[in-house]
Amino acid sequence: MAQLTLKNLGKSFDGTDVIADLSLDVADGELVCLLGPSGSGKSTVLRMVGGFETPERGAILIDGEDVTDVPPEKRPTGMVFQSHALWSHMSVADNVAFGLKLRRLPKAEIRRQVTEALDLVGLGDFGARRVWQLSGGQQQRVAIARALVLKPKILLLDEPFASLDQHLRERLREELRDIQRRLGITTLFVTHGQDEALALADRIIVLRGGEIEQAASPDRMYRSPETRFVAGFIGSMNFPACDMRGGRADHPLFPVEAVVPNGPIELAIRPEALTVSPGRSAGMSARVHRQTDYGTHLLLDIVLEDGARLKAMCPPSGAFEAGQEVGLSASHVALFRDGVKLAEVRPDQRAGLREVAHV
Ligand SMILES: Nc1ncnc2c1ncn2[C@@H]1O[C@H](COP(=O)(O)OP(=O)(O)OP(=O)(O)O)[C@@H](O)[C@H]1O
Question: Which of the four, 134, 140, 220, 257, has the lowest number of CB atoms within 10 Å?
Answer without folding.
Answer: 220
